[in-house]
Amino acid sequence: MSEPIKKRILARAAGLISAATMLSRLLGLIREQLFAALMGASFLADAFVVAFRIPNLLRDLFAEGALAQAFIPTFKADLKGNGKESAYELGNRLAGTLLVVIGIIVGTAVIFAPHIVHVLASDFRADEPGKFALTVTLTRIMMPFLLFVSLSAVAMGMLNAQDKYGAPALAPAMFNTASIIVGASIYFGHVEGKWIVIGWSLGTLLGGLSQLGVQLPPLWRSGFRPKLSFDLRLSDPRMHRIGRLMLPAIAGLAAVQVNIIVNTIFATSEEGAAAWLNYAFRFLQLPIGVFGVAIATVSTTRYADSAAERNMDDMCKYLVDGLRLVSFLTVPSMVGLIVLGEPVIELVYQRGAFGSADTHNTAAALQFYATGLVAYSAVKVLAPAFYAMDKARIAVIASMTAVAGNLIINIGFHGAYGFRVLAFGTAAAALLNFTVLYGAFHRHISRIPHLALLVHVLRVGVAGTVMGAAVWASHRGLAAQFASDRLGQRALLAFVPILVGIVVYAAACAALRIDEVSHYWGKLRRRR
């Protein structure tokens, strides 16, 4: 297969996932708008953020993180070597084993929920009466979410390994849709008090179930038939390989989750900080999901192919293509979020219980988070390469290095600068993680053409700088003419600079002869 064709396949698949993920992230913004209107940065919001942190952390750790990275290469190799029947048998065996293991984890977390919440948010006991008890209740309600998303990750892995990306990419949209329906019912039903957040937590469970359900029809059409089987001892060599790959992956991801736990512990000492950081990071996940995760999803399956064939040249080409796309798409997103953070947050969130002070603080957190957007997305493209090559130890070392950097920053500066340091520490940790992974790939897997990649990144950086100046000037000019008291005025102050930025960035990239612009422009002309 020629190099231009490979690039088109990567771009086409990433485009499909990006479109589906864009839909999901937009629905996610609507969900967050409802959440902000219902709870703002109140003790209800803080309680939900901390309670959901636990099943969400375990999801990232076991289900959508380590499991996906270990399962897809193993399933892909079995599919190529032994056919669909054998591969689907492996999928059933993994799903059955997860039912038992995750079920035990969920049950244990439900029993010891008070102790877990105490570790994450001990200050809640001294806060508003009932805040700690409410957080424990919400934790117990949402723990089964982990089981649903674990099975969803198995379905996603089987579909992605067969180059079927549509339904897995739409799965998060189903989660958001279910949450929106429940949230709208709470909002228009005028539910009050703690029942608002209890209802929202039940909606989260329904969303997890929907995320699994949307992937079952295409999986059935592809020939999969569910059949309960277990292998707790990992006696099947394929299951043993998944377990062997998951252990270092869990260790690597655990390092990332330690960052989240550390940030949560620091944030709960400051009233409203947990909610502000959550709103900001949710917003940051829009470009991460649309661009970084989409490119990484495709790259993971390509790495698995190259690793199976021991073709390191292709592995390097996929990496470079992925990093080029990541920088091209996330640099303007980073600049836009830094320049337009406050007007966009004001447009999306500021209503109901979410006030102007919450807008200012959330925007401040978002601006610091955004400085690490490129590195955060690039890590998602780099890390799967090490798992495909059975070099997970390197990814673990990179993650642990990032944790150490984040912890040093938090301990050293949180007392003086508050929650903003937590966002900055996360961004700095992502950059440190990327640096270690990039150097290790060049040394241990394949030589990266540094100069060509650096020239591309510098061109993108120049285009992004020009775009940022145009966005800042247009917003400043509009702000001098219009207030932001009404929704229409807020939309004008946010969307007009965004449109200016898109046009200026595209023109600057074209003038700098950045290949990705030519590709997308040619694709648009062909479709017309």
Radius of gyration: 23 Å
Individual helix count: 19
Q: How many runs of DSSP E, i.e. beta strands?
A: 0
Domain tally = 1
Helix content: over 70%
Specify the structural class.
Answer: mainly alpha
Q: What is the mean pLDDT?
A: 83
Shape: globular
Report the biggest beta sheet as strand number plus sense, adding barrel if it closes.
none
Strand content: under 5%
Q: H/E element string?
A: HHHHHHHHHHHHHHHHHHH
Low-confidence stretches: none
Write the layout of secondary structure elements.
Elements: H1 3-39, H2 43-82, H3 84-111, H4 113-120, H5 131-142, H6 145-161, H7 166-188, H8 194-213, H9 216-221, H10 237-267, H11 273-309, H12 312-349, H13 356-370, H14 373-388, H15 392-417, H16 419-444, H17 450-481, H18 487-511, H19 515-527
Helix pairs in contact: 1-7, 1-11, 1-12, 2-3, 2-5, 2-6, 2-8, 2-10, 2-11, 3-6, 4-5, 5-8, 6-8, 7-8, 10-15, 11-12, 11-13, 11-14, 12-13, 12-14, 12-17, 12-18, 13-16, 14-15, 14-16, 15-16, 17-18
